[in-house]
Amino acid sequence: HNRSFVRIVEVGPRDGLQNEPVNVPTKVKIEFIDKLSETGLKSIEVTSFVSPKWVPQMKDSAEVYSGIKKRDDISYPVLVPNVKGMESAMKVGVKEIAVFASASEGFSQKNTNCSTQEGINRIKEIIDIAIKANIKVRGYISCVVGCPYDGQVHPSSVTKVTEALLSHGCYEISLGDTIGVGTRATIESLIKDLLNITTADKLAIHCHDTYGQALVNICIALEYGIRVVDSSVSGLGGCPYARGATGNVATEDLVYMLNGMGIDTGIDLKKLVEVGRYITDFIKKATCSKVNNALYSK
Ligand code: HMG
Ligand code: MG
Q1: Counting C-beta atoms within 10 Å of the first and last residue's C-beta, which end of the chain has fewer, N or C?
Q2: What is the 105 CA–ligand 2 centroid distance (Å)?
Q3: Cα angle vertex 251, ends 250, 255, to 5°?
Q4: Which residue in 143, 147, 170, 239 is the catalytic one?
């Protein structure tokens, strides 16, 4: 692993748009992703093959995945909740998927209509299919420090789910602070515990910025050797089953911070600022990125 390189996983098209009440036309989603592909990002989460009854915005997942221009040097993972979603994703030829479980029971029920253990069992079924088809699997764990239904979450709940997902075959676990309640202290103690059961190269961090702590929390993750960070351009998003949760840390702000630390991401910040404007103009929202505001049209 190159110590001075961080791989950013752009989740704007999925985590960013999934909670957007205004229907974003398929054509706009495709154009958005194609523009992201030109910024130097190496990983872009494109969409999710979830139930359209649960998340209507993602109902055009097959069309979006098929419609985008795919570059050989970029991964385009999609979120998959069950075997049905896996079958649909395979029909359009995905090469990487992301599965998701929750460290807390309350969120697991609300987000996937099953317990954490049932969720892990579903994931095992999906991964067994993926491995046979040579499809890479990334794992998410939600509510790694706090849950909108159950409150505080103990690190031991996270280590248990992490061990299960890694043993089933996820190549990496992204630690989701779904409602952005983590602080430097809680994230540090979580990572310390996780490093007793795995290594930093198996971990990624996924911070929603609800309480404005995301960049600080990412910094502590970097100090412990984590080199994969999820973010969403202009801080789009929120989870439909985590009320009050705002978007992910803004990719522009993350790139600016990493540039300042001398850490390479391969990303052209100017181009990224333009893509942030493109999508926030379309959904008629102000950018949530301070860096975007500072740099735009300068
Ligand atoms: P369920 O209602 O228990 O499942 O949902 P079901 O099997 O009874 O199916 C209900 C209906 O959905 C059926 O249709 C199925 O066919 C259909 P009907 O027979 O009534 O006409 N269906 C599907 N359709 C298309 N694709 C599918 C699919 N599956 C079922 N894959 C289920 C269970 C897991 C499907 C549902 O709860 C679901 O889709 N949940 C996903 C919710 C979601 O997308 N949440 C946001 C993503 S996670 C997140 O944001 C967190 C993350 O960012 C990290 C972090 O921040 O923490 C990753
Ligand atoms: Mg999320």
Answers
A1: C
A2: 17
A3: 125
A4: 239
Report in angstroms the alpha-carbon separations of 228 from 88, 113, 138, 142, 267.
27, 29, 12, 16, 14
How far from 97 is each of 100, 126, 275, CA to CA, in Å?
Answer: 10, 10, 24
Distance 122 CA to ligand 1 centre (A): 12
Rounded Cα gap, residues 83 and 214, in angstroms? 33
CA–CA separation, 61 and 29 (whole Å):
10
Ligand nearest to the CA of 144: 1
Residues with CB under 6 A from ligand 1: 15, 18, 48-55, 79, 81-82, 84-85, 88, 100, 111-113, 140, 142, 176, 178, 206, 208, 239-241
Token pair for residue 7? Answer: 């791989």
- 239 catalytically annotated: yes
Alpha helices in 113-229 (DSSP H): 116-132, 155-168, 184-194, 214-223
The single-letter DSSP state of residue 54 is: T
The answer to whether the beta carbons of residues 268 and 256 sit under 8 Å apart is no
Kindly list the averaged pLDDT for each block of 10 residues, start to end, along the chain of length 298: 84 95 96 98 98 97 98 98 98 98 98 98 98 98 97 98 98 97 98 98 97 97 98 86 83 98 97 97 93 90
3-state secondary structure of 195: coil
Q: How many angstroms does the Cα of residue 77 sit away from the middle of ligand 2?
A: 14
Indicate the SS3 state at residue 77: coil
Q: Cβ-count burial of 53 within 10 angstroms (0-12 exposed, 13-18 middle, 19+ buried)?
A: exposed
| Amino acid code (one letter) for 188 | E
Distance separating alpha carbons of residues 96 and 79, to the nearest angstrom: 9
